[in-house]
Amino acid sequence: MNNDLITSGPPLPGFGRQRANPQFAWLRLPAWALILCAILCAAGNARAQENVKRIEGGVLIQFEAAQVELVAATPEALRLSVIYGRQGPAASSFLVSPGDPKATPWREVKKNGWVGIKDKLGSLLMNPKNGEWLLQNADGQVVIPQHEIGGLNQPISAAKPQIKVLVGWDKDSPIEAYGCGNGIHSLMHTEAKAGVANGQATIPYYWSKAGYAALAVTADDNHPASWRGSADGEYVTWTFPGERADLYLMPAASLKDAANAYARLTGAVPVPPLWTFGYLQSRWGWTNRAYIEDTLKNFHDFKIPVDAFIYDFEWYATHPDYSLPDQGEAGFHDFGGNPALFPELATQINAYKAQGVHFVGIRKPRLGNRALLEMARAKTWDLQSQCGEKVSARDVDFANPLLREWYIEQSADLFKAGADGWWNDEGEATYTTYFYWNLAEREALNRYRPNERLWTLNRAFSPGDHRFGAAAWTGDIVSSWEVLAATPANLLNWSLSGMPYGACDIGGFFGSPSPELMCRWMAAGVFFPIMRTHSEVHYEPHFPWLYGDDALAAMRKLIDLRYRLIPYYYSLAHETFATGVPLMRPLIMEFPDDPNVADLSDEWLMGDSLLAAPILQPGGRRSVYLPSGGWYVFGSNQMVQGGCSRQVVAALDEIPVYIRMGTILPLGPVVQHTSDLPGGPLELQVYPGADATFTLVEDDGESQDYLAGKTRRTTFHWDDAKRQLSWRQKGDYSGKNVFQKVRVVVLAPKARAEAGFMLSPSGAVKPL
Questions:
Q1: Is the model's pTM score more than 0.90?
Q2: How far apart are CA 450 and CA 462, in angstroms?
Q3: Taking residues 736-765, what's their average pLDDT?
Q4: Exposure class string for 63-90: b at 16+ Cβ within 10 A, else e
Q5: In this structure, are residues 755 and 763 in contact, taking their beta carbons and an 8 Å threshold?
Q6: Which CATH superfamily is domain 61-92+104-266 in?
Q7: pLDDT for residue 389
Q8: Nearest one of 664, 603, 601, 660 to 633, comparing CA atoms
Q9: Which residues contact 717 (CB under 8 A, 6 or more apart)?
């Protein structure tokens, strides 16, 4: 099909609404009628073209009540905007600042009465007479068929303005989309109403198997768009509150392509600090300084690796603020350390960090101190003055730049004391609270400790929050097998919706897990982007030594495995930064043509080669589906063929894990904390059967110097025919944490082979 040719006939079969168009009916018309039709059509098209003009980046089509813009927003995204009134472009927190419009090449298209724009990935076209539109990919295939926007020639409701944009669907395929956020146990969505709640984040975004992704932006980010599929499967309807609708359309043949395009729109995902890939111990109920230090000693004595303690209310307040009146409490301490736990905040933070344990403290989006509240209200910095009674009386408005500046100044001593991260809790009052809260924390870190990486853990998120180093956890969950089984789907849905760093309260927030449940949850956590335990104050803390000797031994082994995988995970984090593709991936992302994995979420991939299938039910048994191809049992010579399910049994300290044939898997040594890396040689496990390549990325793990290219990238290549490993290095980073020695283990089905060598800038290992 000619990319520029849009016929005025019916949509493609199976797409959009059908119009009567009897084949060859025009042959029955007399000659004079054909001439008259041609004249009338030409006149109509000329009148339609009068309402079209070029604008920066695209074209504008003027209708009676509204105007439509078709714009090349980025090299991967086209923007369809419907605008009533005189509103300018939406200044959305979702999006990165636009770059040079000239950096996105495009050209105007005019064919058969249709107008639009075309770039390297596709074309966005509209009929200027009736508002019908469609999206094509680079090959000219229609991925969104013709549909009307509707209402373009009628005034919008003044009382409750909203815009509906109809997006055509293939009615022979079910309406199913990926990447809309969590809150359901499925990976596929049929509708989504964007919003945030305790551990819930629904995003105005999806990817369709038709070959495109869509991100919706409204005039007010705190009133995001929603979408719903029609009962007949013909289209989805996006509903935009307000007088402006911006629908970013990204031709994307795969979930990976969609992730890349989405990241270009909303911003790259920074590489988190290295220590966040270790084990993180959270607790509500730290009682005093001695309790903290005894717990740290237990981790060392039991030889359980750990990289951070995460502290709840008690790190800064003598009591939780839930019972405070709306006017606050005189003497309540919002900024600083609780003397019972942190009489010497900076000294203690640095002392614990010297033992490998970082400090992460909880923050609340509100004030408790009466005088500070009075001041904030006098300046209308409180959120209630902006949003009305629906929000807490003590919440502050982080969207206000003056409030953010004050908050930064109040937090100065905390940043100067050396706090390594923040745990942002209960910020769901508005859709963008977490965004502007993280913005304040990012600006504070830049001011008081420039060039460091921000890391925060948030109870929800909206698009764009990841730009600052924000991670998210699934909220205040119950300790049960049912919740454990549902957790992977939540985290995978987040991975697909722009939050690649997801976590949960391992063991559950409410309740007391049995030793078996705790071990299985810990095992799953080995393969979550963030491995963190937590519990509510009235329940026993989730310390590994509190569950008996067998469970302690199992959990130690599982946490050890987490630390061995850190070189692999950290390299994947650099891939996420470069491409937007998440670390934790549903199988559908790597095996899009396998119908068995279309909605599979109780097993998943880390990267493209490691398949984790933890035990998520009591009893130690489960069924594991392996896609077609050869798969190795992790760390062994045993290879099994995929394309079918297999029943497996796993002891308390075991996890069903499989490695794809043709994989190089880097593993580090077991260390007490990431500050001890390298701690020994790097182990390269080679799983032969096909050629393999993997790039190990190393940097200092804490600064933003990697943004300037201060890394060491070692690309290993396995030539399967020659049974030869070669490598090349790029980058001159040479800090003390880089690996100097390598031990190669080739896990062939017939024989295991090993070799060791020094890691020079380039070289080759002779056939083993």
A1: yes
A2: 26
A3: 83
A4: beebbbbbbbbbebbbbbbbbbeeeeeb
A5: no
A6: glycosyl hydrolase (family 31) (2.60.40.1760)
A7: 80
A8: 660
A9: 691, 692, 693, 725, 726, 727
